[in-house]
Amino acid sequence: MAPHELPTSSPDSPAYRLLQDSDWVHAGLAVDAPAEMRTALTMILDCPEPLWMSWGPDHRFYFNDAFMPWLGSKLDGAMASPLQVVWHDVWDDVNEAIADAMAGKHRSFKNLRVFMDRDGTSRETFWTFSYSPIRRVGGEVGGILCVVSDQTEFVLERDQRTRLVEAISEEARHAQAELLKAREQLRQSQKLEAIGQLTGGVAHDFNNLLQVISGSVDMLRYGGTADERQSRYIEAIGSAADRATSLVSHLLSFSRRQTLSPEVFDLCEGLKGLADIIRTLVGARITLELDIPEQPLHVLLDKTQLDTALINIAVNARDAIEGHGQVRISIRKVDTMRSIRFAEPLKGSFAAVSVSDTGAGIEEAVLTQVFDPFFTTKGVGEGTGLGLSQVFGFVKQSEGEVDVTSTVGEGSTFTLYLPLTHKTPAAVANGDAQPLPGAQGINVLVVEDNVDVAEFAVGALRELGYGVFLAHDASEALHELAQNPAHYDVVFSDVVMPGMSGLEMAKGLRERFPSLGVVLTSGYSELLAREPGHGFTVLRKPYTLAELSAAIRPASAARWTNALGVASPATWRGPR
Q: Which domains does the chain have, with CATH numbers?
């Protein structure tokens, strides 16, 4: 091997041939090249990635095959020539960084904008590169190594797309206004599918469970016999029941257009509270899995809008799964975010809420349109196309981001990036329980088909001093009233029951026993929603002891006002 030749594995490569034909080799300078330089030069010639190096005080320039295409018209005579001669057009932009590297400091740049001579024309280019010093055995810097990539095409394409997104025309703004108007018009006629399913059986059954929990807590509070440790547990149960009650209330209020507002809450606890609703929504054929961290993640968001967004995604996941499948919801904290849809990455800490399914997946051509209002792949009458646009709008208004990835045949993943807050949820003050007025001399006929709720209602009324008889449905109640018409002051009845509903029974009682007080109770009922002018007192589940007493006593007083013309207490006939 000649003294100027290198032990490279690619002696036939174009860059190696240029090196052998260079003035540096022909002038005999290669013979005296130090071992460190020859080692570094061999390394870049053997590397498949674009690399170049310079050596010595005159910065002689060496490069490999992968770097050659970027030289363009500079290629001729570039090998082993001084760096400032080859790159004279950008020398002012890079000489400081090169000097730092020769002084022993490394430097790196990402998407550095430089105007470069490209085949006789000055063009805007973008480069990502890193300079590192190459040290000799004694520790002094002999040259520099540069790892480089041309990002021009990527940056220009990204900037073009960003400009297109930002350049919203007057026509587009007008279309957006029309869209919002149309969405408002559709609000009453086309309820989102998830809300329609939730406001029926789920809300009713869930409120029955909450009635037993919160009502029992209320009775324990008024009992006043618990020690400090037991009181803490009672308050913890009550607080959880209150949050669950608030969730159901928000979901129902959404369809009634009630004003909603953001609040600070623990995202992890919020998802746990929503999980049972989503599990019911997706059905028994789909398994719901949760991956929720133990530590709280506080956010400042509109809870109802967040719940609606997750429900909308769950509905789409359910519809994408044929037969049996799986929906997985996970939460994780992230401190950095990548660019989504060519937008600048958001800064700060976020909670990433991911909803993944094992459905059919979304085709690439459709993926960019999934958040467009009124865009849907479902059949006519099967969807409004507003579900995912609600998700997008909610997240954007909350200063977050939403991303979607999908593989056809394997499933999709929607990820909501929601900003975390350092604020903590406001503490709910628990005042001392106030004594309730007595109810001696008042008899109540309770009509309730749910065993647990019936047991609570009977126990609560007896605790308050009422005389109580339980009927498990409307027919049993009517039979009891027929046998003992003068025995009862008030009928306290659930609305949704097998056979005759509580509302139907109440209408009949109003005709047969006009002086009998009637109080209805329900967590949610389409019957009441369809007849807002029914005229009966309605106690919403879950109710407290104070609310129960406040509803029953006026109804019992009304009986005697109707019958005698004056309010008079009933004669106590003893509990039944």
A: 14-157 (3.30.450.20), 184-419 (3.30.565.10), 443-564 (3.40.50.2300)
